[in-house]
Amino acid sequence: MLKEFQAFIARGNVMDMAVGIIVGAAFTAIVNSLVTDLINPTVGIFTGGIDFSNLFVVLGPGDYASLVQAREAGAAVFAYGAFLNAVIQFLIVAFAVFLLVKAVNRIKEATERKAQKEATEAAPSGPSEKEILIEIRDALTAHPR
Asked: What separation, in Å, do the N-terminal and C-terminal C-alpha atoms of the chain show?
């Protein structure tokens, strides 16, 4: 059983997936910082200082100055600002992944074109169809039956 597990782990796709998950987790931290520390303050300037993360509606009795206070008090809240932050983060991640995939595809296509060009250059060019037909004709006329 241990050898089967080692064979499973040693497969490339499992290791690739593990690396992808680790890099994805690190990338998530970068995106969270980008949204929280750079985008939200910039958007706040244009929206009159509104902080999305603190936009909420209390679903019941009570009046709270911040989302943190409402949650600490145990109030039911509709935290649409946190949802907006999540949507912004998703769009940033999706766009970054799109750019990454696009770059990888461009590199892959360039590598394939280069390999194809090298294969074409390395292959000896043979006689054309016309040259072969002329050789056949000449061979047939040189040796009459």
From this structure: 75
